[in-house]
Amino acid sequence: MPTEPASRRYMRHQSIWLADDGWSVEVVDQARLPAEWVTRRLCSPGDVLSAMSGEACRDRG
Prior knowledge:
Layout (H helix, E strand, L loop, with lengths): L15 E3 L6 E4 L10 E4 L2 H9 L8
Antiparallel strand pairs: 1-2, 2-3
């Protein structure tokens, strides 16, 4: 998923998706919102744990 321009920042977006390689996933780094739209590629269980503990992924429920 490409980086979104600031003019679209208020649109609804998916926060996690399958990467183009069909194996890893990409997530929006929510710890950096709303100032920046940054994505991270997670390729291993360790990447997922790191993202979860660093609040790249957080529950907005």
